[in-house]
Amino acid sequence: MTHVIACIDGSRITSAVCDYAAWASRRLEAPLNFLHVLGRSEYPVPADLSGNIGLGSREALLQELAELDEKRSRLALEQGRLMLDAAKARAMANGVASPITSRQRHGELVDTLLELESDIRLLVMGRQGEQGDTAGEHIGSHLENVVRTLHRPILVIPTDYTEPQRILIAFDGSATIRKAVEMVAASPLFRGLPCHVVMVGADKADAREQLDWARTTLEKAGFEVAARMRSGQVEEVLCGYRTEHDIDLIVMGAYGHSKIREFLVGSTTTKLILQSKIPLLLLR
Amino acid sequence: MINSFRQNWFSNLRGDLLAGMVVALALIPEAIAFSIIAGVDPKVGLYASFCIAVVTAFVGGRPGMISAATAAMAVLMVTLVKEHGLEYLLAATLLTGVLQIAMGYLKMGSLMRFVSRSVVTGFVNALAILIFMAQLPELTNVTWHVYAMTAAGLAIIYGFPYVTRAIPSPLVTIVVLTGLAMFLNLDIRTVGDMGELPDTLPVFLWPEVPLNFETLAIIFPYSVSLAVVGLLESLMTATIVDDLTDTTSDKNRECKGQGVANIASGMIGGMAGCAMIGQSVINVKSGGRTRLSTLAAGVFLLLLIVFLGEWVAQIPMAALVAVMIMVSIGTFSWGSLANLKKHPVSTSVVMLATVVVVVATHNLAIGVFVGVLLAAMFFANKVAQYKYVSSTLSEDGTTRTYRVVGQVFFASADKFVDFFDFKEAVDKVTIDLCQAHFWDITSVSALDKVVLKFRREGTAVEVIGLNEASATIVDRFALHDKPGAVDNLMGH
Asked: Which helix (H) or strand (E) holds A199?
């Protein structure tokens, strides 16, 4: 629970990841760690359809395949190192005072992050990665997996950086979001920023009560709070509110429901990640 | 989940489909040849190959590995088919599947770690020799045409890739030799002479055997051998494919998958099979990586034999023999011959023993069993040698201290006792076991023997420095530190 860990992969989103990670590291005064995971990609192999095996075919084939992999891995390793160095330099230039480190691992992103979980105070990652550069508006293939597996706060960021000035908490009264409110109140991450708490749903007495609880909790922590009750479709209301009040960051609980329900009903989290042009802080 | 599904099936479309086709072409001669070894119609092996390839594509634990009818399995069935007929073979195939699934659930796959490298090499070499030996009947008492055809076939197989690597050379061999035989109207044996070929898609059929204890008694020994050999070859092949592709596989899932595939094969009139080392290497070499390559191989195989059945019947046996000699050469680990000189004698003995036993018994399971046993004995012997005892006499000559270093267990217990000098008259003996480890009951009773022997000479004995694991076993089983020790030992 010590580091701000930022996942970079060399896609166009990388610079924004660096900037947001640097911002978070400065505010939390936490050491910053850049992570690059070298995935095992399937490379096309030169086809040899001769279909025969002769003296020592197996050994020769093993050697040939190993050599190919070696060359490619070396290149990828070198490229990753350069990328990490560039990220470190950028964060340094951004005025991060805490120690900045980097690490490069082989394997799957989710598995790697799971191993590091105890180190993570805040995970910063892009909405879509390398393959997403060409694929248009969609969620990166890793993101949902990571969000569902990891039990740490995750900052999902868009392609461009703007320093957060006003934040919004998407409040639904659930246990997750109540914990999130307490976390925001206690954390130095947003200290001093005006905070909007928005609850979407019917204006009932117990909902009011919960909203008031959120307001007082945050006010006690010294936040300037605006608590609002709105009705309508969650994504639409939140997006409307965002433009209306010029919000730069949304805090929300993520994937409260099972995969099966999501398949039938669709996930608010996924929709918000898709539509949002600003970073989302996801808490589970 | 969707991701891994994509990864497992469609991440390498072009390579997998092409490789599947190459493998399917190579599977035809093999399936026919192995049916002939087992003494059944070629269609039994062909249906089996189709079915096992398709089923393992879905339920196997190693993507990209090719399973089908194999030589290792075929040689085990010979007597069963000869004495009881095809129906019993099908019943044995079903039972083999059931046993393999059970072994999969019992996680027997992990027992593979006891099979040492030299046993694996022995297995592979023995397999290659068996495949080669199975071709000999086709090469004895025949006209010179057959020799010429076989030689020409081998020349094409290894020469054609220098012309182009885009067409499988075994296919070229078969096409050229078949055309030649038909054109010259040669009177040599063809695949059609060896038995029935498939003319329809496979249909479900239950083996017609009486469901009683007698049947079970007949098929059970065969099924056990088949199950063990099938899993051995499958797991070895899986390791080879793991190494080649630098990925991992689920060995226990593979065991169960092989079982399911064999049950399915038995139900459509196919023989038992397992993973194939040669074909899997060809698959990887041709660019196959995912489950799709295995599935494609099975499906192409079926399409080829059903629609080209007439032409398949015309293939001269000489062409098949050439292909099988290639498989045999490719399967044999030639590097192991050079290693015979370099490796320690014990390693070579294990390898050679495995080969000899297999070739003598035609049963790979027995060969591997002998190999593993030998390897374990050599290992025990080697570990037992890492032991020595030093001793010092105190200045006044009344106390001797023995320092034991190394592993004490059944193989080294006698030597351990021999180290002590019971004739020496001293007041006290200290046995320092700081750097020794006691592994089993035999070693503990050896320690007992030493202690009591000294006591009976009037020498006080002190045992010090037992490490924790040794202390547990000594405390539980030793007699020397319990009352009445001498009497107890005398009783024996």
From this structure: strand A195-200
Residue B169: both structure tokens together: 């050379």
B41-65: per-residue pLDDT in tens? 998 999 999 999 999 999 999 999 9
- Give all strands of the β-sheet with B399-408 in edge-to-edge order: B387-393, B399-408, B428-438, B460-464
Q: Which residue intervals of chain B bear CATH 3.30.750.24?
A: 386-490
Q: Under an 8 A CB cutoff, do A51 and B171 touch?
A: yes
Same CATH topology for A3-41+75-157 and A167-283: the answer is: yes
What pTM value is reported for the model?
A: 0.79
Residue A260, both tokens: 């099966």
> Which parts of chain A fold into alpha helices (H)?
14-28, 57-93, 109-116, 132-135, 143-149, 175-186, 205-220, 234-245, 259-265, 268-275
Q: Which CATH superfamily is domain A3-41+75-157 in?
A: HUPs (3.40.50.620)
Distance (Å, whole) CA B397 – CA B425: 9
Which residue did the predictor score with more confidence, B305 or A46?
A: B305
**Which of B165, B329, B335 lies nearest to residue A49, judging by beta carbons?**
B165
Tokens of B347: 């390693």
Of B11, B331, B335, the CB nearest to A42: B11
Q: Domain B386-490's class?
A: alpha beta
- Verify whether the Cβ–Cβ distance A53 to B286 is below 8 Å: no
The pLDDT score that the predictor gives to residue B492 is 40
CB atoms A51 and B166 under 8 Å: no
Where is pLDDT greater, at A261 or A282?
A282
- Residues contacting residue A152 through CB under 8 Å, at least 6 positions apart: A117, A120, A121, A122, A123
How many other CB atoms are found less than 10 A from the CB of residue B39? 18
Helix (H, G, I), strand (E, B) or coil at B122: helix
Residue pLDDT, tens place only, B184-196? 888 888 888 888 7
CA atoms within 13 A on the CB side of A172: 18
> What mean pLDDT do residues B161-173 have?
88
pLDDT computed for residue B292 by the predictor: 94
Distance in angstroms between the alpha carbons of the first and the last residue of chain B:
64
CB contact under 8 Å between B335 and A48, yes or no, is no
In this predicted model, what pLDDT tens digit does every residue of B250-281 receive, in sequence order?
Answer: 888 999 999 999 999 999 999 999 999 989 99
The closest CB to that of A56, out of B25, B285, B334, belongs to: B334
- CATH homologous superfamily of A167-283: HUPs (3.40.50.620)
B431 HSE (CA, 13 A, CB side): 24
**In angstroms, what separates the C-alpha of B176 from chain A's closest C-alpha?**
16
- Here the ipTM equals 0.74
Q: How many CB atoms lie within 10 A of CB A63?
A: 11
Strands (E), B314-377: none
More confident residue, A33 or A262: A33
Touching A: B residues 47-86, CB under 8 Å:
none
Type of residue numbered A197 = V
d(CA B364, CA B225): 8
A169 touches A252 (CB < 8 A): yes
Asked whether the predicted pLDDT for residue B491 surpasses 50, the reply is no
Q: Which residues of A touch B160 (CB under 8 A)?
A: 50
Structure tokens at A272: 């918000």
- SS3 assignment, position B297: helix
Give the whole-angstrom CA distance, residue A268 versus residue A254: 8
Residue type, A180: A
Domain boundaries defined on chain A: 3-41+75-157, 167-283
Size of interface A-B (CB pairs under 8 A): 98
Higher per-residue confidence, A266 vs B382:
B382
Q: Examine the pLDDT at A134 and tell me if it is beyond 90.
A: no
Helix (H, G, I), strand (E, B) or coil at A200: strand
Q: What is the mean pLDDT of residues A185-210?
A: 86
